[in-house]
Amino acid sequence: MIDIHSHILPGLDDGATKMEETLVMVRQLHEAGFNTLLATPHVMEGKDFLHPEDILTVTEQVRERAAEAGIPVEVLPGSENYIFPDMAKWVDAGKLLTLGNKGKYLLIELPMLEIPQYTDQVFFELQVKGLIPVLAHPERNKGLSDDPERLLEWAKRGIVFQLDLRSLSGYYGPQAKRLAKLMLNSKLVRLLGTDAHRVNRSDLSYSEALQGVKDIIGEAGFQEVTLKNPQLVLEGKLLPSDVRDYILNEPVKMRKRGFWNMFRR
């Protein structure tokens, strides 16, 4: 499996603090079944901006140390970019790192409590440049909980959604859990990520969360979101469009009231 979203790089953000912690996290993720890990530290506009070269350097250090420790995983660079109006200009300047450094898929984070007014414009400007926005953990965003039909609108426009595994367990609260389940049932989820920030205290939490995903979308769907789709991302190729076509069908085209009624069945 491929973990498309993690914070395993030591000392770069609010994830791992030192290499020893990183190696424990990497080993845990490998034992859970992940053979490829995307290291995606937080990148924000401003004085604390994290440059791609710093991410690439530390990713290589982690890759070397994991190999020395005998952990057979591939560690690849990426970033989780907090949305801001000038993202497209920063892409032109080479200041934002795409997933796998392939120049195609850009992982984007929204504020937890709202959808900024400039979000649609940012998505459009990135797509004009040939990039595909990947929205990190949309199930955790209050604005999308209040207006879930935005998910359908964005999916039609080619925005890719990445689900956090911990959302399905209720780690981020009941609203995130409900929206995570509905997104999985509606085939809106294209990618999965652990969003791991630190050493996992439970040996079963990853495996239980993965099984929960499989129970909802079945083995074929599970293979798509954990292996087939992320592999295409790492190859810089387009994801199949059949899922986006499917969500336009009547069973998934929902008004707000009908949307939430699905939770009560």
From TrEMBL:
| EC nos | 3.1.3.48
- What Pfam families does the database record attribute to this sequence? CpsB_CapC
The enzyme class is hydrolase
User: What are the alphabetically sorted keywords of the record?
Assistant: Hydrolase, Protein phosphatase
Catalyzed reaction equations:
O-phospho-L-tyrosyl-[protein] + H2O = L-tyrosyl-[protein] + phosphate
* Name the record gives this protein: protein-tyrosine-phosphatase
* Sequence similarity: Belongs to the metallo-dependent hydrolases superfamily. CpsB/CapC family.
GO molecular-function term, one example from the UniProt record: protein tyrosine phosphatase activity
Naturally occurring in which organism (per UniProt): Candidatus Desulfosporosinus infrequens
